[in-house]
From TrEMBL, chains A, B:
The keyword Lyase applies. Its cofactor is Mg(2+); Ca(2+); Mn(2+); pyridoxal 5'-phosphate. It holds the Pfam family PALP. It comes from the Bacteria. CDD domains: Thr-dehyd (cd01562). This is Threonine dehydratase. GO terms for biological process: D-serine biosynthetic process. Keywords: Lyase, Magnesium, Pyridoxal phosphate. PROSITE patterns: DEHYDRATASE_SER_THR. GO terms for molecular function: ATP binding; L-serine ammonia-lyase activity; magnesium ion binding; pyridoxal phosphate binding; serine racemase activity; threonine racemase activity. It comes from Aquiflexum balticum DSM 16537.
Length: 318, 318
C-alpha cells in the first residue's frame, strides 16, 4: 500500500449511475414481516438477483466498458472468470457493440458458458488452474489488443458496484446498517464508499463464509492475507479480497462477520420459503451473519444486498 | 343448473377489494425479456406467490370472513383443506379475531399444519379420504356452530379471488389475454368476471394439467364431469371444478388448454431460472399452455397469474 489509490467520489458514483442506468435494472427492495420477526429488526433486501445477468456484476462491467475511450474499445475487452463477471462483461461489451474474450476453465458449468455465448462473447478455454487462466488471458490480450477488465480489483468496476447502494439510499430509508457479502470486495467496497459518503454514521458490515474468511482475517490483522484452499457452499465468495478493495475496506467497513455453511443454508432456505425468491448461496451470507448476531442489530433498519440469483437448481442444498 | 347464481358484479368486486386491502399485499407485476423472446409475446406476471400466506387464497378467505355478520362470526369459521386455503382461512380468522377450525387429513405435510397453527387455527385431523373430511367437518360445524367457508365453490370466495385481476387492470395495461390455472375454479372464475366486466374483448384462457383435466373436458361437453383419480405434479389443481365456478367458466371463459407434467416442469424451470422467483408447480401451468400454443398469442400482451409459491423445496422437479 505504498501508492494511495484514488477512490471514486460520490460525484463519480452518481455519474456512473447515470452512465449505466439505461443498461441495468433498478432492482426492487423487498421486505418480509416473517423474517423481521425472526431477526428482531427491520430488513430491506435489495434484490440484485433480479439484476441483468442475474447479479450485481452487471453494474461494474457496464461501467468499466462504458468508460473506455473509443480507441480502447476498438479491440474489445477481455477477462478470466468462471462466474457472473464473465456473463456481465460479455453483455456489457455486446451492449457497447464491441468484442469480448472470456477465458474460462474447461470445467466451467455449461450454463455459464451458454450465458457468455448468448451475449456474443468469445470463450477461450484453459485448464482449470489460476496460473493457466492468467497465462491464457495474457496471450489473448497480446494477440487481440483487448483491454483487460478484472472482476473486482479495479476502480471502475468498484465504482459501478457502488451504484447499488446509491439506489438503496435514494429510497429515503434511514439505514442504521448496510450489509453485503464479501468475496473479492467489489460490491462491499462500492457499498462502503457510497454509504459512508451519504451517511457516515451508518454501519457497513460484511458477511463472509468461515471457509473463505480471508477478508475477516485480513481485516483483523490489518494486512492482506490471501486465502489458500477456500471451501464453502457460497461459490461466489471463493476469491481472495483485492488490493484496492482491501484499502477501501480498511478505511470504510465497520466489521466482517463470519458464518458456517450450515448457517448459510438455513438463511438461504428462509429467503426461499418466506420471500419466494431464488438466490445463490453467497446472497444468504449477510442474513446468516445478522441472525447469528441478532443483538448487534436489534430494532435497527438494516439494508441487505442480495447479490445474485444464478444457482444450479439441480443442486440446491435443501 | 336449475337455480341461477347471482355472480358478483364489478361493484361487488371493487367493494371486496376495499374490504380486504388492509389485510393483503398488492402484489407486483413482473416481466422477463428472456421469456418474452422465447414466447413471442409480452407477458405480465402477476406475482401472487408474494401474497400473504404465499398464495392468492388469502384474498378469497379474507373476503369471506370479513363479510360475515357479527352473529355469524361469534362461533368462528371452519373448512377442510390440506392446502393453501387452510392457512388462508386460519389467517383471515386470526385477523378478524375469531376462531378457525381446520379439518386436515392426517397425512397433510407438517409445514402446512405448522402454517395453520402459526395463525392460531385449531386443526382437527381425520383419515385421508374425502368422505372422512366431509363427515369430520360436519361434526365440527355441529359441535362448534362455526360457519363453513368452502375453498372455491362459494360466491364470497370467488369475489375475493376476483380482486387479483382487478389489481392487474388498475395497472393500465391493455391485455389481449389473461391466463390463470384452473383447479376448483375460484381464481379462474373471479379472473373471468373482473376481466369481462372491464374489457369484454380480452380473452380469458385457463391452463390445466392433462392429469387433472376435468375443467377442460367439462368445458367441451358443456356439463360438469368430475375428475376421478387425478394425477399431476401441479398439486394445487387436483380438485374438480365447483358448480358455481363452472357456471362462470361456461359464461365467461374463452378456452381451457391442457399441458403435460413435463411441459409444466419446463415452464416452471424457466420461471425459476429467468425470473429468479419461487413458484409452486400449479403456477407454471398457464405459461406452459402459452408456450405450447405460441401462435395463438403471437405479439399479444398477456397477463398470467402466478397463483402461489408454497412448494416443498426438497422436492423440486429439477
Amino acid at each position: 500500500m505504498n501508492e494511495k489509490t484514488n477512490f471514486p467520489t460520490l460525484e463519480d458514483i452518481k455519474a456512473a449511475h447515470q452512465r449505466i442506468q439505461p443498461f441495468i435494472h433498478k432492482t426492487p427492495i423487498m421486505t418480509s414481516e416473517a423474517i423481521d420477526k425472526i431477526a428482531g429488526c427491520q430488513i430491506y433486501f435489495k434484490c440484485e438477483n433480479f439484476q441483468k445477468v442475474g447479479a450485481f456484476k452487471a453494474r461494474g462491467a457496464a461501467n468499466a466498458v462504458m468508460k473506455l475511450t473509443d480507441d480502447q474499445k476498438a479491440n474489445g475487452v477481455a477477462t478470466h472468470s468462471s462466474g457472473n463477471h464473465a456473463a456481465a462483461l460479455a453483455r456489457a461489451a455486446s451492449v457497447a457493440g464491441i468484442k469480448s474474450y472470456i477465458v474460462m476453465p474447461s470445467n466451467a458449468p455449461e450454463i455459464k458458458k451458454k450465458a457468455v455465448k448468448g451475449y456474443g462473447g468469445e470463450i477461450i478455454e484453459c485448464v482449470p488452474t489460476l496460473e493457466a487462466r492468467e497465462t491464457t488471458l495474457e496471450e489473448v490480450v497480446k494477440r487481440t489488443g483487448a483491454v483487460f477488465i478484472p472482476p473486482y480489483d479495479y476502480v471502475d468496476v468498484i465504482e459501478g458496484q457502488a451504484t447499488c447502494a446509491l439506489e438503496m439510499w435514494e429510497e429515503g430509508i434511514a439505514f442504521d446498517t448496510i450489509m453485503a457479502p464479501v468475496g473479492g470486495g467489489g460490491l462491499l467496497g462500492g457499498t462502503a464508499l457510497t454509504t459512508k459518503y451519504i451517511s457516515p454514521n451508518t454501519k457497513v458490515i460484511a458477511g463472509e463464509p468461515e471457509g473463505a474468511d480471508d477478508a475477516s482475517r485480513s481485516f483483523k490483522a490489518k494486512k492482506l492475507i490471501p486465502m489458500v484452499g477456500p471451501k464453502t457452499i457460497a461459490d461466489g465468495l471463493l476469491t481472495s479480497v483485492g488490493k484496492i478493495n482491501f484499502e477501501i475496506i480498511m478505511q470504510y467497513v465497520d466489521d466482517i462477520l463470519t458464518v458456517s455453511d450450515q448457517e448459510i443454508i438455513e438463511a438461504m432456505r428462509l429467503i426461499y420459503e418466506r420471500m419466494k425468491i431464488v438466490i445463490e448461496p453467497s446472497c444468504a451470507v449477510p442474513l446468516a451473519a445478522l441472525l447469528k448476531n441478532k443483538e448487534k442489530f436489534k430494532g435497527q433498519k438494516v439494508g441487505i444486498i442480495l447479490s445474485g440469483g444464478n444457482v444450479d437448481l439441480g443442486k440446491l442444498p435443501f
